[in-house]
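Human: Here is a favour to ask of a fellow structure person. Comparing notes only helps if you start from a blank page. Give me a protein, with the fold worked out from its sequence. Please set it down just below, with no commentary around it:

Assistant:
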Amino acid sequence: MGLAKMAAAVLALALAAPMAAHADPNPWWSGFIGQGKLVPLGDGRALYLYCEGAGAPVVVMDSGLGDDASSWRQVQDQIAAKAKTRVCAYDRAGYGRSTGPAGPRDTKTEAADIAQMLQAAKLPGPYVLVGHSMASFNLRLFAYQHPKEVAGIVLVDPSADNQMAVIAANSPSTLKMQEAQNAHTHACAAPDASPAMLKSCAGPPPADLPPELSGKGVGIPPAGYYAAQAAELDAFATIDSKQTVAAKRKLGAMPLIVLTASDTTKAPGLPQAEIDAGAKAWSRLHDEIAALSTKGVNRLVEGSGHYIQKQKPQVVIDAVAEVVAAARANR
């Protein structure tokens, strides 16, 4: 997606970045299909949940806007092995193997979905929450609402309160690129979108998808995906930040690590002054999130773009294992 996609990454709204053209098959896919399960929410919807490993505290992973559980496929099993605990990733409503959304896709609704899913799946808390990008809104709101149910948090290049206004003020060129990306997303979600449009929206299947699973309903957008994505995008631009700000509370000494990508604000053709200003603003926003806990830290991840879990997976693995260990020490 070129500049438009980079702009989306700056604002923590990017779609999943494609992997290398000839990646080796990833065994995560087979486990996801064979061992995952649909968890009923009690309102006719169900969320697809995939867990690996055993132990406590349970790690719960939420993906960025436009991403399903496969966003974590390079780190989930390794976190389970290193932290010696149960690690669960899920598809939000309308994504992946979950059923389509009923109603709004704002943070308040999605945080409630997480709470219902964990209860229905009989996964005991307190949890270590791990979120990428937009999932920061969902998981921070969950933590504000259920502080006794959260033992620690890791946020991967997270979205931040009021970031749209902050980034736009520091990098107006990014705002223009983001508007173009938003228009494209809504075009993909249009009921009368042509087959050619939908093909351009979907892009190629993941390069690490095992050949035997190709064409079996994985690695491709399900029906309703673009509508769910557009609904999340609209909520992100209007009310998600308001909801987290209204519920905001300090998190005491909860283990909290924020990972900030060094290259999120870089884009070909973007003025250097805007790149520099955007990077400083992005880091300040992440400092504010880290300050929610007296034990919070914001760590710069050099040489990584927005998808740290794909470009620097070991950093994410180590951070989650560190927070799991700290959570156990606090019990």
Notes: The mean pLDDT is 89. The domain at 2-16+37-329 is CATH 3.40.50.1820 (Rossmann fold).
